[in-house]
Amino acid sequence: MNLLVLGVNYHTAPVAVRERLAFTPAELPTALAMLSAEHGVTEAAIVSTCNRTELYCNTRDPQQVLAWLAQTRGHSVQDIEPHLYLLNGGEAATHAFRVASGLDSMVLGETQILGQLKDAERFARDAGTMGVLLNGVFQRAFSVAKEVRSQTRIGAASVSMAAASVRLAERLFPSVASCKVLFIGAGEMIELCATHFHARNPKHIAVANRTIERGQALAKQFGGEAILLSDLPFRLAEFDIVVTSTAAPLPIVGKGMVERALKERKRRPMFMVDLAVPRDVEAEVGDLSDVYLYTVDDLAEVVRQGQESRAGEVESAEAIIFERVGDFHRWVASRALVPTIRDLKDYADRIARHELEKAHKKLAAGDNAAAVLEEFSRQMANKFMHAPLAALNNVLPEDQENTLATVRRLYRLHE
Description:
Blueprint: E1 3-9, H1 15-21, H2 28-36, E2 41-48, E3 52-59, H3 62-72, H4 77-80, E4 85-88, H5 89-100, H6 112-127, H7 132-151, H8 161-172, E5 180-184, H9 188-198, E6 204-209, H10 212-221, E7 225-228, H11 232-235, E8 241-244, H12 255-264, E9 270-274, E10 291-295, H13 300-304, H14 308-364, H15 369-393, H16 400-410
GO biological process, one term: protoporphyrinogen IX biosynthetic process from glutamate
EC number: 1.2.1.70
Protein name: Glutamyl-tRNA reductase
């Protein structure tokens, strides 16, 4: 078994690169089937969030996986390789455990990534690409995350993207209570942002979504209204604050749409937060003089402020992860013994069946039962001992000491 993690994250690439390598939920079933069909790839899972895209594979050919990612995303290997990290074995397991525990997140100790890893595991399981190795990695990652959460304060007072968005909005406007807020999308991130903004009692809340039913369900929680995405060009000018996070493959809010909204607003400023990867708002919108546009990368510094209090917990979390990676190594090593254990058991079963069949025939022929049992016992012992005795008789002199020690340990022969 050969664990590989090939990925890109906010440490190694800006959002403009990450969005080109991201996978939408709709793409995942086909992508998983294609990746697992590559030569040398026996298991596959894909984690794709706003901050990272990572391929988890059981493979002996990392270059094959790299070539597949480049081809699938429409880029050359040379273009994307500088932004990628490639981890094998223990390093890959350590990375997976750190990611699950929130130690590799932009928001130190955040819990959303654990849910995203569970989604990735479920997608791979549904696609039939989750095997023994990746199942072992993911289940252990979930267990480690729980252990880190319960034994450290790594997630205490987490400064989330949602909280950072509110903080930035309050730098622009005297009070969120005087603003109208629009949320585009209806997923977990938008629900979290809506919770934070709703706590500031904004003048009005609206949720724009592709399906009106999902938008209505979320808007109802916060006393707001639901609108369709198709209504955005006609309603955008009403809102002072816009927060968007969808899984759309292309931008939803274009520069022209925002320019028209600003004209209608008589140049009153708009605060926009784009938490999606790929981005929901065209990058050129940030060039407009009356728009304050922030992406996930722009929020990084705001998020880092206030995290110093939890930095001391990182060491404790890393110690837990180090111990659990050791457990993972031992588990992988034990899995390598399985074929030999199975073959040894099959060998013993064949001898037993053969000798039992002979004994049954003798008993059916009327032979003395005690004599048959004695012969059965003797033949069983002879057959079991034939292979190890032959090996001992043929061992080379220079290997004799080690071989004898191994045999005595296997058969528990006391000195």
